[in-house]
Amino acid sequence: MLTLIAGLILFFGIHSLSIINEPQRDRWCAKLGENAFKGIFSLLSLAGLVLIVMGYGAARMEPTLLYTPPTGLRHLSMLLLVPVFPLLVATYLPGRIKAAVKHPMLVAVKLWALAHLLANGMLHDVLLFGSFLAWAVVDRISMKRRTQRAVTKATASNKNDIIAVVVGLALYVVTVLWAHQWLIGVAPVG
């Protein structure tokens, strides 16, 4: 469990630089150069993610039950996950979806985390998904006071919305029918 916690601290620590002290983040970026800063950011994020994966895998071997979700919540969970991939794709394709949602990545993370909390009641699940949900809520609140950095230079287009929905739903189907079992070892349906 300590490996999972260390990974969460490292991953969210680096992802919270702008939340905690955006001017300091900007100074480091200016001092190191944008590419070097992004490289260090990526390496630390990857290290945190590796620790999260290792820690979560180890914690699954010795689970601690906190609550048993009703079976019906699994259906609600699956429904909440439908827009997650389209929102993730829409993050990088400006269009009406991105304009309406404003921060589609954060909405996707919140839906993903909430859906998993509804379907899983083990301590390691609550730590993992609860951390992602709490971070996404705090980050969204902090976005209201921060200057937004451009995520992509793609031109806004209605076609982007169609691409986001089609590609996103295809990813959802692939994940539900195959990838989740392959990557996580748990089949969401069946």
UniProtKB/TrEMBL annotation:
It is found in: Membrane. This is NnrU family protein. Pfam families: NnrU. Residues 4-188 form the NnrU domain. The chain crosses the membrane at residues 40-59, 71-93, 113-138, 162-184. It is a multi-pass membrane protein. It comes from the Bacteria. Signal peptide: none annotated. Keywords: Membrane, Transmembrane, Transmembrane helix.
